Amino acid sequence: MDGAFCELRVAARIAAPAERVRALVAWENGALFERSGFARAVVWEERCAVPGAERTLALADGSALRERFLASDAGGYRYALLDPCPLPVRGYVGAVRVTPCGDAACELEVSSRCEPLVPAAEWRAIYEGAQRALLAAVKAEAERAPQAAALEEDRA
Questions:
Q1: Pairing of the two strands 6-14 and 89-100
Q2: In a domain, 1, yes or no
Q3: Number of domains the chain is built from
Q4: What's the CATH code of the domain at 52?
Q5: 33, 57 Cβ separation under 8 angstroms
Q6: What is the pLDDT of residues 1-44, one digit of tens each?
Q7: What is the C-alpha separation between 97 and 107, in angstroms, rounded?
Q8: How many CB atoms are located within 10 Å of the residue 58 CB?
Q9: Phi, psi of 16, deg, nearest 5
């Protein structure tokens, strides 16, 4: 609101291998957004993680978030929200990072830098609420995967 940029970070330790978590949060995998209820659908212009690739998240309230893939490295990727954006921000750049914590655990971190168009405390509450819910969905799915796979094998 005052032209100041805001940097936020939310992280969760997950009792699952980093590779499993990376697959769940990969740019080209939108299924988790849909299963968690964060988005009704995810549509890609081109379903690949290359700079300039775009995707649209159709949100439950009827609005849409358009994102552009910026860059990646071994631990994660960065993306930007495109205008018009239904969120009260400008110049949003987000990052998703998965850091191994041994063979069977990792830390998932989401972060952003943007100019809030509402008071910083209000933006922090919006951002942290949405990201904590998304991280909880990733954590639940990643930590459930070994048990679910074992059950599927038992039924076969």
A1: unpaired
A2: no
A3: 1
A4: 3.30.530.20
A5: yes
A6: 567 999 999 999 999 999 999 999 999 999 989 988 889 999 99
A7: 8
A8: 16
A9: -160, 150
